[in-house]
Amino acid sequence: MAELRHKRVGEGVDTVAPDGSEVRYLLRGERGEMNHFTLPPGATSGAVAHRAVEEIWYFLSGAGEMWRSDGASEETLAVGPGVCVDIATGVGFQFRNTGPEPLTLLIATMPPWQGAEEAFAVEGKWPAGGGAG
On the CB side of 49, how many CA atoms lie within 13 Å of its CA? Predict the structure, then answer.
């Protein structure tokens, strides 16, 4: 029988993602995981792409912009509560917080994250940095 698990998002930061966003671990299974991410006001993530994972992002609060590029086409879109986007393997992406509140989101990663080597830097749309961190 499968173990029945649950977890509440903690206040502390568990780690910092390769793009610079704050990560709070939620649950991890054999085929995927879900985590809670925060980008502080004024912050811009580093631009990265993934070697083997794909992700689905669901924005919970705040306001920002997200850039994605597959090499042939690119887009920049406004993100905030209720916006859901996908990040396919190999797609470059970057996001930034354009509002006064933290930009928060849930990210489902398939398969589960294997470590910092999973992400590699790409040329992004904006300079990375800023924020209150």
Answer: 13
Cα 13 from chain centroid?
14
Mean per-residue pLDDT of the chain: 94
Beta-bridge partners for 97:
64
pLDDT value of residue 9: 86
The whole-angstrom separation of Cα 14 and Cα 129 is 20
The H-or-E segment that residue 95 falls in is strand 92-97
Give me the DSSP letters along 15-73. EE-TTS-EEEEEEE-SS-EEEEEEE-TT-BPPPEEESS-EEEEEEEES-EEEEEE-SS-
Q: Which domains can be identified in the chain, with CATH numbers?
A: 15-119 (2.60.120.10)
Question: Token pair 């993934």 is at which residue?
Answer: 50
What is the value of pTM for the model shown? Answer: 0.92
Contact 63, 83 (CB under 8 A): no
Cα–Cα distance between 124 and 17 in angstroms, integer? 16
